[in-house]
Design brief:
Layout (H helix, E strand, L loop, with lengths): L1 E6 L4 E3 L1 E2 L20 E3 L14 E3 L7 E2 L6 E10 L14 E5 L17 E7 L21 E6 L2 E5 L10 E8 L11 E4 L6 E6 L1
Amino acid sequence: MLCALPALLGPALTGCHAGLPGAAGEGSGGQRPGATSADLRPSGYGAVFLAVGECSSSGTVGVTEVPCDSERAAARVVAREDGRARDGPPCPGTTDFVLHISEHRPSGDEDGDGAVPRGYACVRRLRPPHPGDPGGGGGPRTVVGDCVRDIGGGRVREAACDGEDTRGPRFEVVEAVAVRADCPASTALYVRLGGNRPVGCARPL
């Protein structure tokens, strides 16, 4: 049996208001807060369990690899990596959630040696809504076009850009730059995005 933690919700990010000391916010790749255990079992549809292009069923218990034309198919794998998500390559920006594969010795696996490496699958839903899209309010990464809200203590959390949010002021990440000095003058919050342009410049909504 393969066990996985579907990372469905983004974590709290740390943020820094313009003109205030402190670190920029952490990106949200590979987070697990709020995730629940899910059993993932190989089904024989591909040479690699949950390889790129393969699909998973929905739910947080008994999630399996299924044919993508099955009525049970809920999401498609857009990237698959070995190891822990926090140590490996980040998922694509429009990933909706991440499945963390944690068991090493299932009863069956893709090559018959009795071991499937620890890894993670970056997954996108087959149908809307897509929380990983810019402004969608979720996904494992914060990207340009996403919105965050201030939750106090120098921290922010990703939120949907549309609609009202009474839980705190919201800011939209409007640009990604190499260093803070490149952000526009209207920047009120800096968020760490990762990559070669790691600074997100956010302005109030």
